[in-house]
Write a structure and sequence with these properties.
Length: about 100
């Protein structure tokens, strides 16, 4: 058995080329059937090596190949939905796809 907080500590890595995707921030669960549907992974892109832009990548559960001690290996199969996190003036967060 593994906890959500333990999963959040692991790096998400593409199995094809070893590229680090980011770290899991959340999961989507279908409560009707009791199964995990997607992993939500936070990524950061750097501009000029300093400034980062936060994004979230949604990885379908069927793309999870192995959960190890330090990493979660996933396959790239297809395009993943990418959500860009943009802060608003009222200190809430909105998501754009």
């Amino acid at each position: 058995m593994i906890t959500l907080s333990a999963l959040q500590m692991k790096d998400i890595i593409y199995i094809e080329d070893g590229t680090k995707v980011g770290n899991m921030t959340d999961i989507e669960i279908n409560v009707d059937i009791g199964k995990i549907i997607n992993l939500i992974v936070a990524t950061k892109t750097k501009t000029l090596g300093v400034f980062g832009e936060s994004r979230e990548v949604i990885i379908p559960w069927e793309n999870v190949m192995k959960i190890g001690h330090d990493v979660i290996l996933v396959k790239k199969n297809g395009n993943h939905a990418v959500l860009q996190i943009q802060p608003q003036n009222d200190s809430s967060t909105s998501f754009e796809q």
